[in-house]
Design brief:
Strand order of the largest sheet: 4-11-5-10-9-8-7-6
Strand content: 25-35%
Helix content: 25-40%
Low-confidence stretches: none
Mean pLDDT: 91
Distance between the termini: 26 Å
Order of helices and strands: EEEHEHEEHHEEEHEHE
Radius of gyration: 19 Å
Largest sheet: 8 strands, mixed
Number of strands: 11
């Protein structure tokens, strides 16, 4: 992995993320803060920084994106809209320890968790980059596996503690065991871990086209806080 192609840059109020092309979120322009530079010039300069790294030019747009007309300008410049995502939040009350006992917890990235996550997601490329990203997580975290009595991994996920918030990431259930409640069991265990470690709220992100996940999170009590989407250079 070439370190030149990874990292984060700040450009006139925009946060530019580079991860050698692994996922849109980790390789996107985040127009968060107020801008001063001419918008067209800024877009062209940002494009150059991604294209010289051979990475697609991707903007992550939220309702608070700056400037406020950025989304419409990008559309005029030929950027297509993809991956509308719901950010959802759940207030954590006192949680009882889930009855599910077949749970394995690692407080730092472990090869067993990483290997099973890659298998469940059919990841064969970008493994080195993804592992580096996980190793660089600074807050307290919980890498969790849910197994059956034989030790077969049914689901896995990651919880990251950020103050009073627990972020849930990389939730996935083995294809042959979906729609059997294992995803819910995993999440309930992650929520309990967060509650035990001081979290008062949990949040997650789910793409709107993922109807089964949306239904699951709704049943668990998650409610949408806002949406974001991507604009991608064609």
């Amino acid at each position: 992995m070439n370190e030149r192609f990874t990292g984060t840059a700040i450009y006139d109020g925009w946060i530019l993320k580079f991860a050698a092309g692994y996922t849109k979120r980790a390789n996107s322009i985040n127009p968060i803060y107020f801008s001063h530079e001419n918008l067209q010039s800024k877009i062209e300069n940002s494009e150059h920084m991604y294209l010289e790294r051979n990475i697609k030019v991707v903007y992550k747009i939220t309702p608070q994106a700056s400037p406020s007309n950025l989304d419409s300008v990008l559309a005029k410049f030929g950027y297509s809209l993809e991956g509308t995502t719901s950010v959802q939040v759940l207030t954590l009350l006192e949680t009882e320890a889930p009855s599910e006992s077949n749970v394995i917890i690692y407080n730092q990235l472990h090869e067993n968790w990483f290997r099973n996550f890659c298998l469940l997601n059919h990841i064969s490329d970008h493994e080195t980059i993804f592992k580096k990203m996980l190793e660089n997580i600074i807050p307290d975290r919980c890498f969790m596996l849910l197994t059956d009595d034989s030790g077969t991994v049914l689901a896995c996920g990651l919880g990251v503690l950020e103050g009073e918030y627990l972020g849930l990431f990389n939730i996935v259930t083995q294809e042959n065991f979906r729609n059997q409640g294992y995803g819910a069991k995993l999440i309930k265990n992650l929520l309990h871990w967060g509650n035990e470690n001081g979290a008062k709220n949990a949040y997650l992100q789910v793409i709107l086209s993922n109807a089964p996940a949306l239904n699951l999170y709704a049943k668990l009590g998650f409610e949408e806080k806002y949406k974001y989407w991507y604009r991608i250079k064609n």
